[in-house]
Amino acid sequence: MNVYLTDRQRKIIVSLRTKDAGKNVAAFDNLEKGEVSLPEIGVLCNAINDEFMMEGIQPNFEPNEYGLELEGLLDVINGPRLKP
Predict the structure, then answer these.
(1) Is 34 domain-assigned?
(2) Which of 4, 44, 57, 78 yields a CA-CA distance of 20 to 30 A from 37?
(3) Which residue(s) pair with 35 in the sheet?
């Protein structure tokens, strides 16, 4: 499934890849190539969700600026699973 990222989204993915510490290399490699499988989309969405919970929300549980970027990234990566 094809996924296209902005430059900022690519930078976030690089950061997530580093935090992942090599556990999901194939998913990140395939995303870099622009093609990911359904299981890999799940792995990547979990990584984004984890980052959102740790860094993307304010004390009042509203998303901060970074959280909004993560939500946008999640929409892009999860998009192929939602298309009919």
Answers:
(1) yes
(2) 57
(3) 2
Query: Count of CB atoms within 10 A of residue 84's CB?
Result: 2
The number of distinct structural domains making up the chain is: 1
37 vs 81: CA distance, rounded Å: 10
Tokens for 50? 């984890």
Asked if residue 2 is part of any domain, the answer here is no
Tell me, yes or no, whether 1 lies in a domain. Answer: no
CA atoms of 78 and 44, how far apart (whole Å)? 9
Report if residue 11 sits inside a domain: yes
Which residue range(s) make up the domain with 41?
7-82
pTM: 0.91
